[in-house]
Amino acid sequence: MKALSNMSRLQVSSEYLLLLLKVYESKGKEFYYDDLFERDKDVFLKKTIEDNVYYLGKILNLPLTDARLKLLSKKKMTPKNKSEILLLNIKLALTSLQKRPKDFEVIPNEFDELARVLSKEFEPIKFGTYEGKQENTLLSEKKKESMRIKLEQITDEYIKQSKTKQYELIQMITNFYVDFINTQVFTSQNELISYIALYGFLIKEFSVFKYVSFFEYFYKHFESFKLALNQANYYYTTGFPNTDYLSRLLVDILTQAYEKVNGFSKEYSFEKKLNKGDSIEATIKTGKEIFSKEDIRIQHPTISLITIDRTLKRLKEEGLIQPLGKGRSSKWQRIDDSRRKGGKQLDIFQFTDLWRQYLLQGQLVVSVNLLPKWQ
Q1: What is the pLDDT along the chain (375 residues), one digit of tens a residue?
Q2: Domain range holding 242?
């Protein structure tokens, strides 16, 4: 508990302060986002859980194919091995956090319950032990104590420092994380528990992660995260862990998450006034000529797959698009007006005067450089 107990060592640079101001300014818009997305909150909930499970599985480097990882993230499946059991347990834990983020508490019971969920039909995850103080007798052995005591000390220190209101929230979270991961409270899966707990802290305080996946950003920054954590751990035993880079990394993730939500909130606000099918049609008409159903889903995360399929079928019947192949990996192609039935055909007999001259003179071989362009 060398990080939280020595919070006075921290200094806030002017650059970090400016980044924080930007994050908290965006946080002030959360009431607006909650009201705007109220109609499709269940759609956001489902998609965010799926993305979180998928990317956390990638972070853990589970021995599963990408296709299987996506399938388990999206659908109810029967697990075939221990890795799949663990992933489904992760899905259960993340679903609980996503549905009730404000219920997350910084108490040992919260972590104990998380360990129980993750260990179901997988492997035991219990509190470890450490050697306590030796009793005042020559023949007595050191008493084994539960690591739950150490966890209680960390959570109590976090609550104590929070009550002082002297330290910024993100710095508090990163220092808790460093203390927790260095204490190794459980017999196994400490890293996994620390990732989910970190997410619990963040989604409770920053509801932006109700609409975008935290672990998607965490995955993209994971190499930087490991470097920042190594730097913090290097000085941990001295009582002066450098957690600045960890805090900065979380601020960067929050900034990017808010920027994304702010970006698609404008499109969403406009789309609310439109029919969903019309919105998809507008995207197809202005987007890439060749596209997939997944491309449409990414641009319209709140529209169900049934609506997307129905719209694609309608546009196909209207001659606006045509399928390229079959199956999950199939693509679609937009049919522009000039290529559609009844559209204007290209007149191949429209030649320039120069080309006519060559034909009249009977010259069958013409330099490529002299070939005129079609009018």
Answers
A1: 789 998 988 888 899 999 999 999 999 999 999 998 998 899 899 999 999 999 999 999 999 999 999 999 999 899 999 999 999 999 999 999 999 999 999 999 999 999 999 999 999 999 999 987 766 655 556 788 999 999 999 999 999 999 999 999 999 999 999 999 999 999 999 999 999 999 999 999 999 999 999 999 999 999 999 999 999 998 888 888 999 999 999 999 999 999 999 988 887 776 665 677 777 888 888 888 888 888 888 888 777 788 888 888 888 888 888 888 877 778 888 888 766 555 443 443 434 444 454 445 554 444 444 444 444
A2: 4-132+144-269
Q: Which of 330, 219, 211 is nearest to 262 (CA)?
A: 211
Same domain, yes or no: 250 and 286: no
- Maximum pairwise Cα distance, the chain: 120
Nearest to 52 by CA among 67, 69, 29: 69
Tokens describing residue 54: 């998928």
Tell me whether residue 214 is exposed, middle or buried, using C-beta atoms within 10 angstroms of its C-beta: 0 to 12, 13 to 18, 19 or more.
buried
Residues 261 and 290 both lie in one domain: no
- Residue for token digits 């702010």? 262
Distance between CA atoms of residues 39 and 67, nearest Å:
31
* Shared-domain flag, residues 176 and 282: no
Domain count, the chain: 2
Q: What are the E-state strand segments in 22-108?
A: none
Contacts 24+ apart (CB under 8 A), 11-14: 12/168, 12/171
At residue 16's C-alpha, the angle toward residues 10 and 21, to 5°, is 115
**Both 178 and 217 in a single domain?**
yes
- Shared domain for 190 and 327, answered yes or no, is no
Spatial distance between the Cα atoms of 266 and 126, rounded to a whole number of angstroms? 47
Q: Are residues 250 and 278 in the same domain?
A: no
CA 279 to mean position of chain CA atoms: 25
Half-sphere exposure in the Cβ direction for 309 (13 Å, CA)? 5
Looking at 252, 269, 286, which one is the last position of a domain? 269
Strands (E), the chain: 129-134, 142-146, 290-291, 321-324, 331-334
Please state, as a whole number, how many other Cβ atoms lie within 10 Å of the Cβ of residue 164.
8
